[in-house]
Amino acid sequence: MEKFGQPLPEDTPTRVAVARHPLHPMLVPFPIAFLLGGLASDLAWLFTADTFWARTSLWLVGCGALMGVLAGIAGTVELLAVRGIRHRAASWNHFVVAVMLLGVSIVNWLSRLGDAAGTILPYGLFLSSLGALLVGVAGWLGGKLVFEHQVGVGDDDTDD
Ligand code: HEM
After folding, report:
1. What gap in Å lies between CA 81 and CA 100, rounded to an integer?
2. CA 127–ligand 1 middle distance (angstroms)
3. Is the pTM of this model over 0.90?
4. pLDDT for residue 76 is more than 80
């Protein structure tokens, strides 16, 4: 109980980095672009009925889910390893939305494996739209971590 009411730890350095550049922000553009691209190609299939777009969606959603898992692993290690990050509610808000996004994206991809075109209506399109919404919320909350809480921007010269 003594912990409540104490100021948040100031130190929020990155621990998962290449030459002090945090790995998670380097990876997240891939799932963001692939998953939003997946929604765009679902819509292209809807308007053209060309199966090229159904196969494109299958690949985009699959690559988005895979790259999202890789980004999520980097983010989770950072979250658990750094005291100043794991003590912030904002980090856990971002984590919960990101895990929902990964769950939706994996189900979206797996459901398309047998029949890329046949599953787009209605579930594929619904899951791609939900995924795009979750990408927006997860990205927004991730941005808040960096720009408001300075997560991953501080110097790594403190012990946990
Ligand atoms: C699943 C677990 C995840 C965890 C625990 C997590 C954690 C974090 C952390 C700690 C940061 C602060 C920067 C850093 O220290 O690296 C961050 C930033 C961010 N995250 Fe995540 N993340 C997760 C997944 C995702 C996913 C799937 C996406 C997007 C599809 C995402 C999008 C972002 C964005 C856009 C930023 C801001 C990057 C910047 O502007 O520099 N995160 N996340």
Report:
1. 22
2. 21
3. yes
4. yes
